[in-house]
Write a structure and sequence with these properties.
The complex is a heterotrimer of chains A (395), B (104) and C (464). Chain B is mainly alpha-helical. Chain B contains 5 helices and 4 strands; from the N terminus they run E-E-H-H-H-H-E-H-E. Chain B is 38% helix and 9% strand. Chain B is flat, with a radius of gyration of 17 Å. Chain C has 464 residues and is an alpha/beta fold. Among the domains of chain C are: 187 residues, FAD/NAD(P)-binding domain (3-Layer(bba) Sandwich); 86 residues, FAD/NAD(P)-binding domain. Helices cover 24% and strands 26% of the residues of chain C. In chain C, strands 8, 9, 10, 11, 13, 14 and 26 form a 7-stranded mixed β-sheet that branches. In chain C, strands 2-1-7-5-6 form a 5-stranded mixed β-sheet, covered by helices on one side. The longest helix of chain C is centred in the C-terminal third of the chain and has 28 residues. The chains are: A alpha/beta (395), B mainly alpha (104), C alpha/beta (464).
Chain lengths: 395, 104, 464
């Protein structure tokens, strides 16, 4: 990112026409915009309702892992990890990737059997995940309470990133290639004039375009409603906290799948983590903070790592998960609306998968190869009943 | 010789860092907070937020066209979202809240 | 550490019998009423901490628990605000984030490497191997304090307390003490008034005021307790949670205040809330404005008024309000040679010196610069309103210079939020005595309204 690369939104007026309008200035929308521009298709406008990092891309814990229960996710994340490793040198902005591993703690035998199958699948794909006894896990994280779990699985190649610079990196690079990024620009209505003919109405005026990409994450069902489409995904609040900064001691991200607890230590030394807390699912995006979350998080975190007792919480916030019924995203062109594309339903792992999804999405849109993920993650799978579930979800 | 004028002492963010962010087009206090990291340390902005908002106010006053891209609600100076807890609280005390005294 | 000619070595104090605390393995004297920070300052410790990235030397700035420059490891707990911990015999403390020591920290080479600031985004992004090496190094030297000692995990069981009261007053400074006292007086024992104070003693800005100090704080506390106000000190309101509820709360009400002491989590709610949360001392922008020896006026006032500590011989006071004037007068009475500038017509450009301040560069309104010799720079400008909790509950604020984000309210302290009132610095009343007067007015008004509402309710015919 050069000092001359002015921030995207600073200057541009909304043009009246574009080839592609991307709704949502999160990592997914910005990543696709960048990958399109890199392929010479830079007549792209990205519309962000607030500022960059204001949505889920600016609110997640930054985990990047290759441990999954489905082969496609494992393979995609292997590629995404490679992109993350090269991101700083390619886009000129540090993303502070630290590959300290992911350590999943297992609390019950039934859960262990399921994870053994996932680990075997990961091993077949070349991911070096191992099942560990509590004593073996203590060698990686000596501060764990060995009574809080019966086994663990560990992939030393998983890691954590600092999420925000991905957005700035993609945004700066895309805008240097000609993409226009509009912050504080809310989509109010979408007219479908015919196949591949849309007018997107915004708080700053209308844009006529051939293609609309709905990359609005938790807000994507509401965007789809503007063209009369009901999506099966729905928003779900996920809360998270950061503690005061400590000297580096914790290598991997630690997670307990059964409670949805996860925590890692950021480059700045903070313990950053969250846990699943019941919430009302009314289809709205809720971003309020609750004391109840702090209590649940503190109690479960201390049961796993008691030495953190006297560590203080500095701040808490919430981000919206975009939950799909089978834990897999919804990708590709809407079958009944030519030119209306979906990239949503990522259930909290959209951030880590965005670098690779953006690449294959741009290839698809530019008439290149069609990655198998677009068949598996097509919207019509919910009607066909051909869906396979992703089981390794946190929260 | 050091020429640092410290805006955020907790995170060692300088006036030059803030000016760079403003120069890149980050004009909202929430954007400046994220781009520079100011206000994210032990004091959570109690020392740096107001002074940064005053800098942003001056930039906007000098160039009113910059205000155009912001929605009405953002045009007046405003603090960044004050995340709880507003003072640091230990995990140990928070964990005590889980259980009997809770009402859904 | 403490050079013989250190301005701190002239710190003078009176008081009762000293005792000792342990500072990095050495015994340090402390007195009853000291905090860890005040004891170390009196003992001549110039550097209390090293900053996160550049390892710049720091010492106390606010002395009221809001800034982060006095963080020490205290009794095995990292990142602890030393200005908020009472000195007690045998207490152990040490500085953090420095190598080999906080006095001579080689990691401060980072300060010289990045002379105006650090753009961590573009730092060594390529080539790839260099980027990876840089990230590894940054990770290894990053972070502040080490993990807590293991035995700190086992100490006593914390508990949770739920309370619903008639009037909850947050902040026991001049405004909050007066508000709670006036409200309780009006309720005449027919309602509970609870007063919260985050610091370990009540008083707020009284404690920093050279003419009022602890004596006035204690008198105000006595008046509050005489009226039956329940007071919780060292209990900080840390958040307004609009979606949470607790079991003592009336069923129609939602939203609570989370508060915490060292061992107790409080979930609090009330019929009426009075926020008297005060303000956080602010610094000015000038080169090396974080050099040890640049202290807030409140810190200097508090050291003098509560701890009998006088720093230096030639302070430079920046500020032009009533507080700056009374502080200047008090420093002169204590025998110091005080210079003053108003901070507007004449402003600070640079703090000069080595580890500790030795002078200041000043610029006047014609652009003329001069250098003065001083051994303390006192930033005696008004604080910024501590309006965080109010913003959380949706109150509207406006940016004032000075004053920060002040909460909008009418003359009775009434905000646009139902049952939420403000007084004192958080609503823009900066002078100490004016804040106390405003508190008394608001407290009375809130109680009167509550009594009237109850009377009206009682006189209504029962439903059905």
């Amino acid at each position: 990112m050069s000092a001359s690369g002015r921030m995207p939104a600073a200057a541009h007026r909304l043009a009246s026409e574009a080839e592609t309008v991307i709704i949502g200035g999160g990592i997914m929308g910005l990543g696709i915009a960048y990958e399109l521009a890199r392929r010479g298709r830079s007549d792209v406008h990205v519309l962000e309702q607030e500022y960059l990092t204001s949505g889920a891309s600016g609110r997640n814990g930054g985990g990047v892992r290759m441990q999954w229960s489905t082969e496609l996710n494992i393979r995609l994340m292997q590629e995404s990890m490679e992109i993350c490793r090269d991101f700083a040198s390619e886009l000129g902005i540090n993303v502070w990737l630290r590959q300290g591993g992911y350590l999943f703690l297992i609390r019950g035998q039934a859960e262990l059997a399921q994870l053994e199958r996932s680990v075997a699948l990961q091993n077949r794909c070349g991911v070096p995940t191992r099942i560990l006894t509590p004593q073996e896990a203590l060698r990686i994280v000596p501060e764990l309470n060995p009574k809080s779990f019966v086994a663990a699985c560990y992939n030393p190649r998983d890691g954590v990133v600092f999420p925000w610079p991905f957005l700035w990196g993609y945004a700066h690079a895309a805008s240097e290639l000609g993409v226009q990024i509009h912050t504080y620009t809310k989509v109010t209505a979408i007219d479908v004039l015919g196949p591949n003919r849309f007018v997107v109405h915004t708080s700053k005026g209308p844009i006529r375009c051939e293609r609309v990409i709905n990359a609005a994450g938790a807000w994507s069902p509401a965007i789809a409603k503007l063209v009369g489409v009901e999506l099966p995904n729905h928003p779900h609040r996920h809360e998270i906290l950061a503690t005061e900064s400590l000297k580096p001691f914790l290598k991997p991200l630690v997670s307990v799948l059964s409670s949805g607890l996860y925590f890692s230590q950021s480059m700045r030394g903070e313990i950053v983590g969250g846990i699943t807390v019941p919430d009302h699912d009314d289809g709205q995006v809720h971003l309020g903070s609750r004391l109840r979350f702090l209590e649940d998080m503190a109690a479960d975190l201390l049961s796993v790592m008691p030495v953190l007792s006297q560590v203080r919480v500095l701040r808490q916030w919430a981000g919206p998960y975009d939950v799909s019924p089978d834990g897999l995203p919804i990708l590709g062109e809407h079958p009944a609306l030519p030119g209306f594309y979906l990239v949503c339903g990522f259930v909290g792992y959209g951030f880590m998968m965005a670098p690779v999804i953006a690449r294959y999405y741009a290839e698809l849109l530019c008439g290149g190869s069609r990655h198998p993920v677009f068949d598996r993650c097509r919207l019509s799978r919910f009607a066909d009943g051909t869906s396979e579930r992703e089981l390794m979800l946190i929260g | 010789m050091s020429e640092k004028c410290i805006v955020c002492p907790c995170e060692d963010v300088t006036l030059a860092d803030v000016e760079q962010a403003i120069g890149l087009g980050y004009l909202d206090i929430d954007e400046v907070k994220r781009f520079t990291g100011l206000g994210t340390g032990p004091c959570q902005g109690k020392l740096c937020m107001v002074v940064t908002c005053q800098l942003l106010q001056k930039v906007q006053a000098a160039d009113p066209s910059r205000r155009d891209r912001q929605p009405e609600s953002q045009k007046e100076p405003h603090p960044f979202t004050p995340r709880p807890p507003v003072v640091p609280v230990s995990l140990y005390v928070l964990a005590a809240g889980k259980g009997a005294d809770r009402e859904r | 550490m403490d050079k013989p000619d250190s301005p701190l070595s002239s710190a003078e104090r009176s008081g009762d019998e000293p005792f000792q605390i342990e500072f990095e393995g050495r015994a340090m004297p402390a007195r009853h009423g000291d905090t860890v920070a005040s004891a170390l300052i009196a003992a001549g410790v110039q550097v209390l901490s090293r900053s996160l990235k550049f390892h710049r030397p720091r010492t106390v700035f606010c002395l009221s628990g809001s800034c982060g420059s006095c963080l020490l490891r205290i009794d095995g707990r990292p990142n602890t605000r030393s200005c908020q911990v009472r000195a007690e015999p045998g207490l152990r403390c040490a500085r953090q984030n420095a190598w080999p020591s906080a006095d001579y920290d080689l990691l401060s080479a980072a300060d010289a490497m990045f002379p105006i600031g650090m753009d961590h985004h573009t730092l060594f992004t390529s080539p790839r191997p260099l980027n990876r090496l840089m990230q590894k190094m940054v990770h290894q030297i990053g972070g502040l304090g080490r993990l807590p000692d293991e035995d700190t995990a086992a100490e006593g069981a914390p508990s949770a307390v739920c309370k619903h009261v008639d009037i909850l007053v947050i902040g026991a400074g001049p405004a909050g003490l007066a508000a709670a006292t006036a409200a309780a007086h009006k309720l005449r024992g027919k309602g509970r008034v609870l007063l919260l104070e985050s610091q370990s003693e009540v008083g707020g800005s009284y404690l920093c005021h050279p003419e009022l100090g602890r004596a006035e704080a204690r008198a105000a506390l006595q008046r509050a307790e005489d009226e039956g106000v329940e007071v919780l000190v060292a209990t900080a309101a840390f958040g307004f949670y609009g979606e949470d509820r607790h079991r003592e709360q009336p069923s129609e009400q939602r939203g609570l205040i989370g508060a915490a002491s060292e061992k107790v989590l409080y979930k609090l709610s009330a019929e009426r809330y009075i926020y008297a949360t005060g303000g956080a001392p602010q610094n000015l922008l000038f080169v090396d404005n974080d050099r040890p020896g640049v202290l807030s006026g409140r810190a200097v006032g508090r050291l003098l008024a509560c701890h009998g500590i006088r720093i230096g011989e030639r302070p430079l006071v920046v500020g032009n309000d009533e507080f700056a004037e009374s502080l200047t007068a008090a420093l002169r009475r204590s025998g110091q040679t005080v210079m003053t500038i108003d901070g507007e017509r004449e402003r600070l450009v640079r703090a000069l010196g080595g580890t500790w301040v030795e002078g200041a560069e000043i610029c006047d309104d014609k652009g003329l610069r001069r250098t003065v010799s001083c051994d303390l720079i006192v930033i005696a400008i008004p604080p910024a309103a501590a309006s965080e909790l109010l913003v959380q509950l949706g109150a509207s604020v406006e940016l004032r210079q000075p004053g920060g984000f002040v909460v909008k309210a009418d003359e009775h302290g009434r905000t646009a939020q139902q049952h939420v009132f403000v007084c004192g610095e958080v609503s823009g009343t900066m002078a100490t005595l004016a804040a106390a007067a405003a508190g008394a007015r608001v407290g009375k008004c809130v109680a009167v309204e509550l009594v009237e509402q109850r009377r009206a309710k009682a006189s209504q015919p029962a439903p059905g």
